[in-house]
Write the structure tokens for this entry.
Amino acid sequence: MKHMNMRRRLAALSATTLTLGLVASGASVLSAGATGSDGVNTSSKTITIGGTFPLSGLAAAGFQDVAKAALATFDYVNGHGQVNGWSVDYKVLDDCYNLGVCGAGKNTDAQTQALVNTPVFATVGSLGTATQQGEISYLKTNNTPQLFVSSGAHFWNDPSSNPNLFGFQTNYLAEGKIFGNYISSKFKGKKVGFLGQNDDFGQDGLQGLKNGGVTPATADQLTYNSTDVVFNQGTFRTSMAKLQSDKVAVVVLDTIPQGTKLALDAAKSLGFKPQFIISGVGSDPQTVNDTNEKGAITFTFFNATNATSNKASAWNAWASKVLTAESGKTVNGVKLATFTSKSILSGNQLYGVAIAAGFIEALNKVTANGGTPTRSNFVSALTSNSLSTPAILPLAYSSTNHQGLTGGYLVSVTATGQATGATKAVNTTVYSVNPTTQALTTSKLTNAAVPSEFK
Amino acid sequence: MIANILTNRIVNDIAGGASQGVIIGLVALCLVLVWRATRVLNFAQGPMAMFVTYIGMTQMDHHVNFWLAAVISMVVGFMFSALTEIVIVKPLYHKAEINPIVVMVGMFTLLEAIASAIWTNIPRYPTAPYSSINFQSSGNPTGLSPLSTFQIAAALAVMTFVAVLFNYTSLGLKLRASALAPEVSKLLGLRVSRLLTLGWGIAGAVGAVAGVVISLNPGGLSPNMLDAMFILGFIAAAIGGLDSPLGALISGVGIGVIMQLINDYWNSNYADMVAVVLLVVALMLRPQGIFTKNSARRV
């Protein structure tokens, strides 16, 4: 009997909470005025967008910094001049990277549906290859643009069938080609080995390496499963032992940060000291947090991140200013990271600032001269302008190319550790790979100015 | 000659696999201890061990040395597990068998959520007391490092302690009696309820050792760190027999070594799968587990 009472009371309580919740959310929609079905509110001049990221679970380390930095940037711009009078409401939802260990509803399908029902103008920066591939047709059916997918896969550049789908970062094919090009000139004649994740990440990376003129011996092209970083860590040891006994001098790693760490530690315990060249996806020294990474060469499309770079590059200085101003704030229910003017930017933080900056740039174009953003004029603004972001290359979409960034440059890891990890430029050559022809071109690094709309 | 053996590829794989395997064996041992004592499959074993490992190892931030931090983990592990039995599990005895399983799955999620809230998801790397650089022989690496040797030794020490406790002490006899025949033991004057709690406590302390040992690996200490090990440990316990502590150890080491040999000689993509295949084959040939002596088993 007692149990029954308890259960009833609980049921009543949860019903009340639910009702209150509904009333509260209904009230906020009502008071905000007429938000259109495209997430644009013309009376309050607010554009609502969203993104799904792992904010908890195994993939949260590192990746949650992308979401938090983007949120910080939108919040900062809203409070510092807005965009031609418009402000951006960015909803960040936790999808747990679809690992299923973070509790009910924390998966990409459910959270993307929640965003579409909000409704949002577009998803911006949602993270993950497999997670986002699963949402392409759903978002297309619901006319919601899928912008700046945070993934190095090449699947986002398909404008003829998915005109509202846009990638952001340099893809693995291009990165691999840039590595290949560098290795063939710098480590000419040296034996090269490869360890890559057994999916498009590793496969595209290896293909890129071959496109760049470097083909490791078949026995030295090794793979691991993404689950091996938890279930089968021993495979990193056997891989490094194989490359060691084959006397490989240069090892290319297309590994996620946990895999990078396992490979570096295995090599160290074996006394194996090759030159490591690590994909930008798995090399962020603040995430990998491993002293053995020092001296490794990696790839980035941002300025090197170290104690002086916050001042040396105009965009890094701006990013640093934004994160310092927003340090520790809670925005849309997400607590932002602590950041001081002395903190070293991480690659993930710059990435978050960059996706926000890209969106703000395009919004600035469509709202200039009193324009109202619509999904179609926004997409045209993306494809007809070269947009400046913290990346060292402009974000250059066209009607036939939705890749986004097409290159970057090489940096080496100079310091490791969770807050102290840092990199410095190997040289000032910026590489770019044409996503259609795969042709490689080079230019010199310039310190791009921050456009005036970023206060 | 000896140098050749020490740096031989197969010997290296066996050594490397064994250092991974003893950890699987330790997790399996925890499951077996709890199962033997109370016929409950503790699905929250991994997170419980993770939680107490955090409590001990984070003391190193306050200049507590590794050994004391490890002891803190073990003591807290014992108390936490015993308390869990008293508060959460005890009311569920003599109810449907699914009840404790559901409750412990809930506990699994809860503990990982609390750990993320307190210590965040960013892994921590406790400073290991030994180097992870492999011993060298004639300039070539062997399959073991001082750290992995320590990990194996720690696991073996725990196994030996448990074996001696259960087989050669009167407390061990009481523990076994109260687990196998609680009613008879009660009639003979044993305080069965307390002994069952003690069984959980010992399993908690063993789990803490597993947690501490794993936290020294490259993956470090994170709220999810034991999830994979729990699955492999569960497989090892089922293969060895849920009633056999020795079986848990042997099958744990066996799984570790076989996975490593597959990594090296076949394809690492099959290594996880083989653990499951081994389970299916073992259960088909000997459903009660390879090392279980009494074939009578509740179904």
